[in-house]
Design brief:
This protein is α+β, with helices and mostly antiparallel strands. The protein has three domains: about 100 residues, no CATH class; about 60 residues, Signal transduction histidine kinase, dimerisation/phosphotransfer (DHp) domain (Helix Hairpins); about 170 residues, Heat Shock Protein 90 (2-Layer Sandwich), CATH 3.30.565. The chain contains seven helices and eight strands; from the N terminus they run H-H-H-H-E-H-E-E-H-E-E-H-E-E-E. It has a five-stranded mixed sheet with strand order 2-4-5-7-6. Strand 4 and strand 5 form a beta hairpin. Helix 4 packs parallel to helix 7. The longest helix has about 50 residues. The two termini are about 50 Å apart.
Length: about 375
Amino acid sequence: MNSIIYRITGLMFLAVAITVFLLIYLANAQMTDLFQEYVTVQQMETHRNVMNYMNPGSQEQAVMMGISEQHFLTSVHQSLIWVGVALLVAGLAASYALARSITTPLRKLSTAAFEIERGNFAQKVPVASNDEVGSLALIFNSMAETLDNNSKLRQQFLANIAHELRTPLAVIQGHLEGMIDGIIEPNHKQLTSLHEEAVRLSRLIKDLKDLSLAEVRQLSLEVKAIAVNQTVEQAIYMLKPLADEKQIVIEQNLTQELPLITADSDRICQLFYNLVTNAIRYTASGGQVIISTELTKLEKKDWVKVTVADNGPGIDAADLPHVFDHFYRGEKSRDRKSGGTGLGLAIVKQLAEIHGGKVLVESTVGKGSTFYVLLPVKVHEKAIIFA
């Protein structure tokens, strides 16, 4: 009897039963008294008229109901009892139907929740109404879908990490085993190659650490007022040798007298560094990268917008929604000739969001890609440390 269906049914049936019993009791009591009074009045009036006609001055006598009147009252009482029984049966059926309409979806939700607890995230419950239970079912379905997507992303993420770590480790292991066995002679070229792989592995691990901390908003930030133009120029200066090597022209269109923003200077520099590096990497030799800054208004707020545009091959429309995913590459063969760890843009997105900003992308195949970084204009006088 702990089931909610029995409790709801019992509670509603008890309310209906009490109401029916009270109505029958009061109706019977009132009907008997009122009918008795009516019969008495009628008989007294009749008797008075007869006695006054036959024997004026005679005393009145008490009258009683006859068999016909008593039979009528008995019939009415029985009818009320049958009506009460019918109301009780109807109330019980209605209570049970109402209880089932509430508890049946809850039972399905409970079954689906149990399956999710066991790790089966692909669960859906039917939405049969627009009430609170239906709203709960919609929220549950959305939660289950999110959990299922997160589970798939986590599995893919772990597979990608294993893939990315295995290659440099395999290269290092193979060279070292060859040197130990005397197959490969240790020389400057071999050691340089091993060092490059170790650096790449170290950079990948650092990117993974920063990305994981940024996603849970635990990345350490030293916040202060910074000038965006200065930070952009710093990133461009560090990447100029890479651009010169590919004969790529970096054009700057920086709006002067931009307001300061509140951010971590090193992290924002890393954000721009990753964006410009990505633009240079996917722009062919002799191409162009244009970097511009401006003050814009969006959602009734002031933002500093930084635009990084290239004239590279562009991004296919099917790949565009995934450019900020971990390890995502348009080329499914995962060719490494373009370099990178596959985490650069994912880090850009997280660094922008952790500063209260956002990053957007537009691209046309064959014409290039444009990334927009929006950072809110908000200045504090003193630096703040977020741990």
